[in-house]
Design brief:
The chain has 151 residues and is mostly helical. The protein is built from 5 helices and no strands. Helix 3 runs antiparallel to helix 4. One of its GO terms (cellular component) is membrane.
Length: 151
């Protein structure tokens, strides 16, 4: 694995995104974001407004993270400091979005105790995965900020 000091000033491309921090977090972000998306889509949407926000955040972040990962994998960024700043800005926004969605989803899950046990378990799983996705995006934001400042 490449050391952090060697790669923090450069934006990786190709398979380099699988060996550098914070870019190695793309796949877990996609996995946990996809799980949130699937679990919320499987549950009964009783208060449509908070659940709709959770769905928007999970679908938006899943799609944008996949596009962002492809941009880095195919080398479109050309190792520019602007891309490092954009990476930091996107992951910061995604962490904020996921935090707001996680809090809304947790509130809805706590309020719905009269539903079926199956839906309640799905909602609890979605809350846990949503907070894990929030943590992953937050960690990615911190390391992206460090990389951006080292340019």
């Amino acid at each position: 694995m490449a050391s952090t000091t060697e790669t923090m000033g450069n934006l990786p491309s190709g398979l380099g995104i699988c060996t550098t921090i914070p870019d190695i977090l793309y796949l877990p972000e996609l996995i946990f974001g996809g799980l949130v998306w699937i679990l919320v889509a499987c549950t009964l949407v009783v208060p449509a407004n908070p659940q709709g926000w959770v769905m928007f955040v999970s679908v938006f972040c899943f799609t944008m993270t996949f596009i962002w990962m492809c941009i880095f994998a195919f080398g479109v960024h050309r190792n520019s400091g602007r891309w490092a700043a954009a990476d930091f800005a996107y992951h910061g926004l995604a962490a904020f979005f996921y935090l707001s969605a996680s809090v809304a989803l947790a509130k809805v899950t706590l309020d719905i105790k009269a539903g079926t046990l199956y839906n309640y378990r799905l909602d609890i799983s979605a809350v846990v995965f949503s907070y894990v996705a929030t943590l992953l995006y937050f960690i990615h934001t911190i390391f992206s900020a460090i990389r951006w400042k080292s340019f």
